[in-house]
Specification:
- The protein has 10 helices and 14 strands.
- The protein has 312 residues and is an alpha/beta fold.
- The chain folds into 3 domains: 1-85 and 159-175 and 189-230, 3-Layer(aba) Sandwich (Rossmann fold), CATH 3.40.50; 96-157, no CATH class; 232-296, Alpha-Beta Plaits (2-Layer Sandwich), CATH 3.30.70.
- The strands form 3 sheets. The protein has a 6-stranded mixed sheet, with helices on both faces.
- Strand 9 (209-214) and strand 10 form a beta hairpin.
- 33% of the residues are buried.
- The model has no long low-confidence stretch (mean pLDDT 91).
- The structure holds adenosine-5'-diphosphate (ADP) and magnesium ion (MG).
- The site of adenosine-5'-diphosphate has 11 residues, from strand 2 and helix 1.
- Residues 50-51, 91, 165-166 line the site of magnesium ion.
Length: 312
């Protein structure tokens, strides 16, 4: 087995209250490992603590307690090495308005101590689609262009771990696709990627593993497919040749409903019932089948079932 790119233990964050507001515990002591080479998804409703976690990894927010190891380097004992191992694309689109993209990357490379000869400024600008805007002032860039610039900045020191906080929130489809293609390419070349997203479909398509965060706690963490298969529900949607007059008799453990379009929807637990049982009972009821479709739970169902009823 490989090593962990990130190891988080007992991570706690309490934001101090200001002007009479009470202190806010954003992270309640979480443990989390992210394996080397993964594309790892951090999911959770607004206010769950995702950005707080990422900003702590980035060194932008001070933790209250706990430990963070990045690429084997403890953030407190080896701050320089742990910082060099990670590139973070923050959620907020804050770029310095008076720098051009080219200058911003050069400054960033300087901050990270990348020697001039090892800089990849032009290559990175081209890769994120900013070559033509290399000499435009950042304040003239569109939101999508700013997002590209932030990604470019996170990559100047070629970090083995790249973290993206809601990178596709509010970006157009074209940029989203470019972004994901690039993330896959970086991952194929060995970069460990951690991302937060609101798009569960995206997490399902992109992430090997996900952690679901809610109210400052990790409430699930597993391979994406395993998390989905934890939900045992299954539906078989049968379109009959002719409209059925009455619902067929079903044994315990199977439920049947008639859908508006005339389809019969059989719901059951796949650990207990086989599709064959449903097809058998249709044959016995004399219902001819025109079409069969199955519906399985997706990450959204997992998410809803896990976060339901946890509202503070
Ligand atoms: P997420 O990224 O999952 O939406 P955040 O990490 O941004 O969640 O926020 C977690 C909680 O911490 C929220 O209740 C939020 O209001 C609070 N919070 C975030 N940043 C600050 C801050 N700078 N000061 C006080 N509270 C904050
Ligand atoms: Mg956030």
């Amino acid at each position: 087995m490989g090593e962990n790119a990130i190891e988080i233990r007992g991570l706690r964050k309490v934001y101090a209250g200001q002007g009479g507001t009470p202190p806010k515990e954003a992270l309640g002591g979480i443990d989390l490992d992210v394996p080397e080479g993964a594309i790892f998804g951090l999911l959770g409703p607004n206010g769950a603590g995702k950005s707080t976690l990422i900003n702590i990894l980035a060194g932008l927010t001070l933790k209250t307690a706990g430990s963070v190891r990045i690429w084997g380097f403890d953030q407190d004992r080896n701050p320089r090495q742990s910082r060099a191992a990670i590139g973070v694309v923050p959620q907020e689109l804050n770029v310095d308005p008076f720098f051009t993209p080219r200058a911003a990357l050069e400054v960033q490379a300087g901050l990270y101590g990348v020697p001039k000869r090892q800089r990849r400024t032009e290559e990175i600008l081209a890769r994120v689609g900013l070559a033509e805007k290399a000499e435009s002032y950042a304040r003239t860039l569109s939101g999508g262009m700013k997002r590209r610039l932030l990604i470019a900045k996170a990559l100047v020191h070629s970090p083995p771990v790249l973290v993206l906080d809601e990178p596709t929130a509010g970006v157009d489809i074209e940029l989203r696709q470019m972004l994901w293609a690039y993330v896959r390419e970086l991952n194929d070349a060995g970069t460990t990627v951690i991302l937060t997203t609101h798009y569960l479909e995206e997490a399902e398509a992109m992430c090997d593993s996900v952690a679901i965060v809610d109210h400052g706690a990790v409430i699930a963490r597993d391979r994406t497919a395993a998390l989905v298969s934890r939900l045992d529900a299954k539906s078989l949607v049968i379109t009959p040749e002719q409209a059925v007059a009455a619902l067929p008799e079903v044994p315990p453990g199977i439920e049947v409903a008639l859908r508006g379009d005339g389809a019969l929807v059989f719901s059951y637990r796949r650990s207990e019932t086989r599709a064959e049982t449903v097809l058998d009972l249709l044959r016995r009821a004399g219902i001819a089948i025109r079409d069969v479709a199955t519906e399985e739970p997706d990450l959204e169902d997992v998410f809803v079932s896990l976060t339901r009823g946890r509202a503070a």
